[in-house]
Amino acid sequence: MSDPGGPDPVVAAALAGDDQAFAAVAQRHHRELHVHCYRMLASYEEAEDAVQEALLRAWSHRARIAAGGGNLRAWLYRVCTNVCLDQIRRRRRRPITGTAAEVAWLQPYPDALLDEAAAADDGPDATVIDRETIELTFLVALQALPPRQRAALIARDVLGWSAVETAEALETTVAAANSAVQRARATLQQRLPERRADWSAPEVGAAERDLLARFVRANDEGDAALALACATEDIRITMPPAPAVFTGLDDLRTLLERAFGPEREGDWRALPTRANRLPAAGSYLRRPGDTRFRAFKLDVIRVEGERIAEITTFGWSHFARFGLPPELPGV
Fold first, then answer.
1. Rounded distance, CA 273 to CA 52, Å?
2. Whose CA is closest to 15, among 28, 6, 24, 27?
3. Of 326, 330, 331, nearest to 290 (Cα)?
4. Which of 50, 260, 282, 330 is 20 to 30 A from 184, alpha carbon to alpha carbon?
5. pTM of the prediction?
6. Distance between CA atoms of 219 and 228, rounded to whole angstroms?
7. What average pLDDT does this structure show over 193-222?
């Protein structure tokens, strides 16, 4: 994992001890490092903590970077990986077996910020933002892997590191790193949908945009029939951090009755957005007697064919980083 181009004077100054130069390099790589930590941790907020800790560690040990050849970007990835491993050890979360409902710490990632990582002039390859490496189902599957297997797989299959680079980053042997990757690949093959190759498009396609428009319209009009028509027979709905899982049209019908039926809490509006390279919508609720629609939930949608196969629902606290307003006018 080498820095592109010739010697960078800013990097050289950073390695020589220039605080401002190091801050400039850290800012340059911040978003791509954040995406890397997010894959490891599945939490936007925990990824931010990991990046900050990693930058502090890298600064305090910058002499080791210069001694190792001066590849600051590669060193930052290595430090971030090990900070994430430390965080995973500290939190001691129990192993998961399958669904997003088990990953209470799961959080969405705005596509606009993924685009920012991809646009970095010396950022990583396009695989960093491909749907198959950032989609929620993939993140949940990663969380089922032992931490070092997770790190090894991301290094090899997402970042494109060599076996030697992976072993060096994990401070292990090449044989051990290769073994970890092989075991991780075998586990993911069992956990991921067979049609995962269909996720290779980096952006939401026309069919998904049309389906999202119908989903938004069903929300705005309180149209339960339209919402049901958008869903597959075995649709699955989860709401991290809540452990509940709703499966199938009967469960969806029950949820829609609560949202749109006579006993509903109020009226709804929705704004389309994108998260984790998937269509998404921010929903707003206007309760009886209120004059404004208030931020309520964020639905991230996984599509199979021309129907919604899965909805992962998050709370309104994520709206700001998606650029969604906290409220909408009531008219």
1. 28
2. 24
3. 330
4. 50
5. 0.90
6. 11
7. 78
Assess contact for 319 and 301: CB atoms under 8 A: no
Dist CA 300 CA 138 (whole Å):
14
For the purposes of burial, counting CB atoms within 10 Å of the CB of 189, is it exposed (0-12), middle (13-18) or buried (19 or more)?
exposed
**Confidence band of 132 (pLDDT split at 50, 70, 90):** confident
Contact 81, 73 (CB under 8 A): no
Residue 64 CA to residue 77 CA, distance in Å, equals 14
What is the per-residue DSSP string for 156-223? IIIS---HHHHHHHHTS-HHHHHHHHHHHHHHHHHHS-TTGGGGG-SS--HHHHHHHHHHHHHHHHT-
Q: Which of 28, 131, 58, 108 is nearest to 313 (CA)?
A: 108
DSSP annotation of 262 reads T
Instruction: Please answer whether residues 131 and 202 qualify as being in contact, where contact means their C-beta atoms are separated by less than 8 angstroms.
Output: yes
**Cα–Cα distances in Å, from 236 out to 49, 246, 253, 298, 329?**
31, 6, 12, 16, 32
Q: How far is Cα 247 from Cα 242, in angstroms, rounded to an integer? A: 15
The residue type of 134 is I
The overall average pLDDT reported for the chain is 87
